[in-house]
Design brief:
By secondary structure, the protein is an alpha/beta fold. The chain has three domains: 87 residues, Winged helix-like DNA-binding domain superfamily/Winged helix DNA-binding domain (Arc Repressor Mutant, subunit A); 126 residues, 2-Layer Sandwich (Nucleotidyltransferase, domain 5), CATH 3.30.420.40; 143 residues, 2-Layer Sandwich (Nucleotidyltransferase, domain 5). Helices cover 39% and strands 21% of the residues. It has a five-stranded mixed β-sheet, sandwiched between helices. It has a five-stranded mixed β-sheet with strand order 14-13-12-15-16. A hairpin with a 5-residue loop joins strand 4 and strand 5. The longest helix is centred in the last third of the chain and has 26 residues. Belongs to the ROK (NagC/XylR) family. InterPro entries: ATPase_NBD, HTH_MarR-typ, ROK, ROK_cs, WH-like_DNA-bd_sf, WH_DNA-bd_sf. This is ROK family transcriptional regulator.
Length: 396
């Protein structure tokens, strides 16, 4: 059964817009080779309007370096597809015909984002193109693994599609575990998934474009798109919950690594002095030191506030030890923490930053900043939405 769109029709009748270049180079900024030019240039136009409403065709031509003829042609095409709307004429004191202002039509399509990282429940939401949540649903996971867990995913998508009136741009999924570039879950032990072609299974079942990524990689995309307006183009996001993972953006592009496992720092052993036993069987893994559950248990046993602060600082120091080489090698400018603020703010965060500064060249990394994400528990869900926006429209 086909839901939402027909890839052979124009957008006014439900056509999925052409892909904008996937996840490399999240925000297009320049012209490219002729064979890729039209798709890329569409994304250039859409990216300008994604960030700034009320630009004219001339404004877009100046900011992108494309000719006015090219911009006029692309804007006409995008208006015909329903992705761009004309707002009216600009009030202008200059002589001549007033410019017509343009905006992205955020209601032209909806998209579905899914967060499978919560041990208790799977979460899904329907978004408009501006990232506003239209509908949010969850389903308890219980002890479901393997095929049973997959059926819960299917059911969530079916519920969101049931009463949908707008065409669906695509589905984005943030999943725990190692996820390759083809959307295959190489390994997600907690879900009982090994070599599961999740992207292909969802695409075949719902006849929609699907993008699947590791949950921490999805989270860093959310921070890049919906987080701080001053977010750096070189940052690492550390997601701390039941486990510990990291998402990387370097020079404005996500980093996945040669085996799609970049950011898997949870089972990196910190130091040579042993440490708490990790679920993987090793002693002293990052996850064993700083997972949210362990920190919470330790705080319950703390004798007084001073002891609690010392425990958090010690855990933060361990994370800082693990991050210092990464910051040094990549010359990152920002670290973002995602997780329980009651645990991570204050002594923990201060110890992370201080430890990194002690273990790197102070002059080079003096401007390194560390902050908590403002996106809260929705960060993976919103990152899943960015997977669709970037993959299908080339914007973020």
């Amino acid at each position: 059964m086909t839901h939402g769109v027909d890839t052979d029709r124009n957008a006014a009748t439900g056509r999925v817009p052409r892909a904008g270049g996937g996840l490399r180079g999240l925000r297009p900024t320049a012209k490219v080779l002729p064979e890729h030019a039209r798709s890329h240039n569409r994304s250039l136009v859409l990216q300008q309007l994604y960030r700034t409403e009320g630009l004219s065709r001339a404004d877009i031509a100046r900011s992108t370096g494309l000719t006015r003829v090219t911009i006029s042609d692309l804007v006409g095409e995008l208006i015909g597809e329903g992705l761009i709307a004309e707002l009216g004429q600009r009030e202008d004191a200059r002589p001549g015909k007033p410019a017509t202002l343009l905006a992205l039509n955020v209601h032209a399509f909806h998209l579905i984002g899914m967060d499978l990282s919560d041990k208790v429940a799977f979460h899904a939401a329907r978004f408009d193109l501006g990232g506003t949540i239209i509908e949010r649903i969850s389903a308890p996971r219980g002890t479901a693994v393997g095929e049973d867990a997959l059926e819960i995913v299917y059911a969530l998508v079916e519920r969101l599609l049931r009463d949908e009136t707008s065409p669906i741009l695509g589905i984005g999924v943030g999943s725990p575990g190692v996820v390759d570039g083809e959307g295959r879950i190489r390994t997600a032990p907690n879900l009982g998934w090994h070599d599961l072609p999740l992207r292909d299974l969802l695409a075949a079942r719902f006849a929609l474009p699907v993008t699947v990524a590791n949950d921490a990689n999805a989270a860093v995309l959310a921070e890049h798109t919906f987080g701080s307006q001053d977010a750096a183009s070189d940052l690492i996001l550390i997601q701390i919950g039941a486990g510990v993972g990291a998402g990387l953006i370097v020079d404005g592009a996500p980093v996945s690594g040669s085996r799609s496992a970049a950011g898997e720092i949870g089972h990196v052993v910190v130091g040579t002095d042993g440490g708490p036993r990790c679920a993987c069987g090793k002693d002293g893994c990052v996850e064993a030191w700083v997972a949210a559950g362990r920190l919470a248990e330790q705080l319950e046993q703390a004798a007084d506030p001073a002891a609690a602060e010392a425990l958090l600082a010690a855990a933060g120091e361990r994370l800082g030890i693990a991050l210092a080489p990464v910051v040094g090698v990549l010359n990152l400018s920002e670290i973002v923490l995602s997780g329980p603020t009651t645990l991570l703010e204050g002594a923990f965060a201060n110890a992370v930053l201080e430890t990194i500064r002690q273990r790197t060249i102070s002059d080079i990394h003096a401007e390194l900043t560390l902050r908590m994400t403002a996106l809260g528990q929705d960060i993976v869900l919103r990152g899943a939405a960015v997977l669709v926006l970037s993959g299908q429209l080339g914007v973020s």
